[in-house]
Amino acid sequence: MAWDRKQMTARAARELQDGTYVNLGIGIPTLVANYIPEGVHVTLQSENGLLGIGPFPTEDAIDADLISAGKQTVTALPHSAFFDSAQSFAMNRGSKIAMAILGAMEVAENGDLANWMIPGKLVKGMGGALDLVAGVKRVVVVMDHTNKAGESKVLKTCTLPLTGKGVIDRIITNLGVLNVAEGGLRLVELADGVTDSELRAATDATIIN
């Protein structure tokens, strides 16, 4: 057993701290907006120019002009603000955002992050992840622990081009939660039904006690 995507997202939402500004990356992280814990008030930022993202819209409330950086339709809140990309990237680079919750293709035990391209495949560009990991105070990654071939994506060293070096604080996968620490990754929590030995067997990175 392991967490499904909804459970991973709900676990990532528990990282949110009341009163903070948070950026949600493309993919699984965008779902965090639907799982904000009761009593926690955060302001979600989208790098395409929206501060104050609400939950995904119901079918009768979809506005095709209101989208996130991942091109998904979103909702605005009464306090939402709209601005240009220059101001958005200035927020990211200027440490105005407390935390980023991002997806990843690979992560390394020293906190390196690779989440923007696979060599030889067509990509539109790095996007805002480079600015985010350089400027935010805390980076949490949400991802599957292994690829479709069953190979670990939690590595000693990333093989793909890096988005940032030593930038990750916490990794949440379908198998559990790991912190980046001196000497490797420290196990924080196991997913439901997953044993310590199962997580270690699926992890290429060093896990320290």
* End-to-end distance: 23 Å
Reading side by side through the largest sheet, how are the strands ordered?
A: 4-3-2-1-5-8-10-11-12-13
Question: How would you describe the shape?
Answer: globular
Would you list the SSEs in sequence order as H and E?
Answer: HEEEEHEEEHEEEEEHE
Radius of gyration: 17 Å
- Domains counted in the coordinates: how many? 1
Q: How is the CATH topology named?
A: Glutaconate Coenzyme A-transferase
Describe this structure in words.
With 209 residues, the chain is α/β, with parallel strands linked by helices. It has one domain: Glutaconate Coenzyme A-transferase (3-Layer(aba) Sandwich). The chain is 15% helix and 26% strand. The protein is built from four helices and 13 strands. It has helices at residues 5-13, 85-93, 129-135, 196-201, and strands at 21-24, 43-46, 50-54, 75-82, 99-102, 106-108, 113-114, 138-142, 154-155, 170-172, 176-181, 184-190, 207-208. The strands form two sheets. A ten-stranded mixed beta sheet has the order 4-3-2-1-5-8-10-11-12-13. It has a three-stranded mixed beta sheet with strand order 7-6-9, with no helix packed on it. α2 (85-93) runs parallel beside α3. It is globular and about 45 Å long. The two termini are 23 Å apart. 40% of the residues are buried. The mean pLDDT is 91.
Features:
209 residues; alpha/beta; Glutaconate Coenzyme A-transferase; ten-stranded mixed β-sheet; three-stranded mixed β-sheet; 13 strands; 26% strand
Provide a concise account of the structure shown.
This protein has helices spanning 5-13, 85-93, 129-135, 196-201; strands at 21-24, 43-46, 50-54, 75-82, 99-102, 106-108, 113-114, 138-142, 154-155, 170-172, 176-181, 184-190, 207-208. By secondary structure, the chain is of the alpha/beta class.
